[in-house]
UniProtKB/TrEMBL annotation:
<dbReference type="InterPro" id="IPR036689">
    <property type="entry name" value="ESAT-6-like_sf"/>
</dbReference>
<protein>
    <submittedName>
        <fullName>Probable PE family protein</fullName>
    </submittedName>
</protein>
Amino acid sequence: MRSTISQAESAALSAQAFHVGESSVAFQAAHARFVEVAAKVNALLDIAQVNLGDAAATYVAEDAAAASRYVGV
């Protein structure tokens, strides 16, 4: 996801040179909104990454605890 956002940012910066006048102003406004949303998406991805790490650690700990209580037949 982050690489896709980065690629879109690069493409937008390359395309910016083709806009002049009112088109340039509209492009800059849209790009500013894109940058704002991209920052929010990256923040959410950071939160998700932390939560997945916590969940994985909890799962492994619970699984190990359950395995130690398991009595084979």
